[in-house]
Design a protein that fits this description.
This protein is an all-alpha fold. It has 3 domains: about 190 residues, MFS general substrate transporter like domains (Growth Hormone, Chain: A), CATH 1.20.1250; about 55 residues; about 220 residues, MFS general substrate transporter like domains (Growth Hormone, Chain: A). About 75% of the residues lie in helices and about 0% in strands. It contains 17 helices and no strands. Helix 1 packs antiparallel against helix 8, helix 4 runs antiparallel to helix 8 and helix 9 packs antiparallel against helix 10. The radius of gyration is 22 Å and the shape is globular.
Length: about 500
């Protein structure tokens, strides 16, 4: 195995593990800059394409196919994350991060030259595979080169990249569409990716000793196909096919069968892609459950807040986008202070505060109605964002600090995969809630919610906001399951405080 210390025997521990050996020969400032640039690639891409969809469809056609631009990207990113996490523990973070940046840049160039919608969709898969490495590897590298106390501050820097990108992405997208070409929304990734890769290549030296490995091909294949079918079933159920239809049932059933088979394979694999011991550790279960629920709330609101602002409150698309951006701004603000807080009062207390704030923000969303100003909607989103920031950052740091270097990539990959699953669950669950409300009012459901009257939209999305409050309560429960402190190695395994 790839190791940094001779004689290390991998085991789970609840002691905060500080790998001071990692990065001692690296300049941490430039490495942090490279991670932020790499994160910026993924963060800007998350918002820039949405503004250019009309221009893309006008140029390439394929209006009915364009939702796949987002779905295939999310699928490729999500299912590749656990595999990259394992590979990073085997060969080091640097080569996997460079591979991810390279795939993302190549995918961006191909997208920029796409000649029709099917080609663009295929090239988005390449981008997604790159993003699947960049995001978790960035977080893992931060966990390697900074102590737990330092990580508290650095996580705020990473979160700020997402906040800036939520404003820069749509703005750049609008400028490129209006004055250049939609193709530049992909070409802009080239200088960012090249700069990130160059700095990382020159300044980051992990000091990893690489050995021979037995890659878990069977586990990787089962996880990839099973995870793809699971996310596909959740994303497309109730949209492209009814939940109870043959495709709806078959896709999810096949996913369950493959993932169960994956668990059996992992029990026998010498170097499993996703070791099953992580599901027996209380800290990791609490952290993964929490980030899954963060994904539920975040993606659910990201889907419906702009629609509520435009369809119910009568604002412009730009104003609706800024209402949602308030949530993205609240997140890094909270993440910056969360570090100081969990070092003082502990991870559980910090996460409970965040879950309570998330629930309170969702309740504020429920109070918004057709007469409310858009500022009230934005304020509620900001509160939700603050709550999510107080949960997400401590969850990742707690999980990373509970294991040593040789397992940190897998742990971070599992966390990112949990959030992706949560995002898909959020889209599916809130979509079902909204559709059920429309059916109850009209007796049928229009596949285009944007065509519904403000009163019907108010009812449907109001149920979604209520659902986010319920998710907030579940988040409180998962945060309460976190251990009070990271100490005494037997604690996590036993599940005690």
């Amino acid at each position: 195995m790839a190791q940094q210390r001779v004689g290390f025997a991998p085991e789970v521990t609840t002691e905060p593990v500080e790998d001071s050996a990692v990065g001692l020969r690296s300049e941490r400032g430039p490495v942090l800059l490279a991670v932020m640039l790499g994160t910026g690639l993924v963060a800007i891409d998350a918002t820039i394409l949405a503004t250019a969809v009309p221009a893309v469809v006008d140029d390439l056609g394929g209006f009915t196919e364009f939702p796949w631009l987002f779905s295939v990207y999310l699928l490729a990113q999500a299912v590749s994350v656990p595999i990259y996490g394992k590979l990073a523990d085997m060969v080091g973070r640097k080569p996997i991060m460079l591979l991810g940046i390279g795939l993302f840049v190549v995918g961006s160039v191909l997208c920029g030259f796409a000649w029709n919608m099917p080609a663009l969709i295929a090239f988005r898969v390449v981008q997604g595979l790159g993003a699947g490495a960049v995001q978790p590897m960035g977080i893992t590298i931060i966990g390697d080169i900074y102590s737990m106390a330092e990580r508290a501050r650095v996580q705020g820097y990473i979160a700020s990249v997402w906040a800036v990108s939520s404003v820069v992405g749509p703005t750049l997208g609008g400028v490129f569409v209006d004055y250049l070409s939609w193709r530049w929304i992909f070409f802009v990734n080239i200088p960012l990716g090249v700069a990130a890769a160059w700095v990382l290549f020159r300044r980051f030296d992990e000091g990893v000793v690489r050995g021979r490995h037995r890659l878990d091909y069977g586990g990787a294949a089962l996880l990839t196909v099973g995870g793809t079918l699971l996310l596909l079933g959740l994303l497309e159920g109730g949209v492209r096919w009814a939940w109870t239809s043959l495709p709806g049932v078959s896709v999810l059933a096949a996913a369950v069968v493959l993932l169960v088979a994956f668990c059996f394979v992992e029990r026998r694999a010498p170097e499993p892609i996703l070791p099953l011991w992580i599901f027996r550790v209380r800290i990791l279960n609490a952290a993964n459950a929490s980030v899954l629920l963060v994904g539920v709330v975040m993606m659910g609101l990201s889907t419906y807040v702009p629609l509520y602002a435009q369809g119910v409150l009568g604002t412009s698309a730009l104003t609706g986008g800024f209402a949602l951006a308030a949530m993205t701004v609240g997140w890094p603000v909270a993440a910056t202070f969360a570090g100081r807080l969990y070092l003082t009062i502990g991870f559980r207390a910090t996460m409970l505060i965040g879950a309570a704030v998330t629930t309170a923000g969702s309740i504020l969303l429920v109070t918004v109605d057709r007469q409310s100003p858009v500022a009230q909607l934005a304020a509620a989103c900001f509160v939700v964002g603050v709550g999510l920031g107080f949960v997400a950052s401590p969850s990742v740091v707690a999980a990373q600090s509970s294991v040593d270097w040789e397992s940190r990539g897998v742990i971070t990959g599992a966390s990112m995969f949990s959030r992706s699953v949560g995002s898909a669950v959020g889209v599916a669950a809130f979509g079902a809630v909204a559709n059920a409300a429309v059916v109850a009012r009209l007796g049928t459901v229009d596949p285009d919610l944007g065509k519904l009257s403000p009163s019907v939209l108010d009812l449907a999305i109001g149920r979604v906001f209520l659902g986010s409050a319920i998710a907030g309560v579940l988040l409180l429960a998962s945060a309460a399951f976190m251990t009070k402190r990271l100490a005494e190695p037997s604690t996590a395994a036993a599940g005690d405080d």
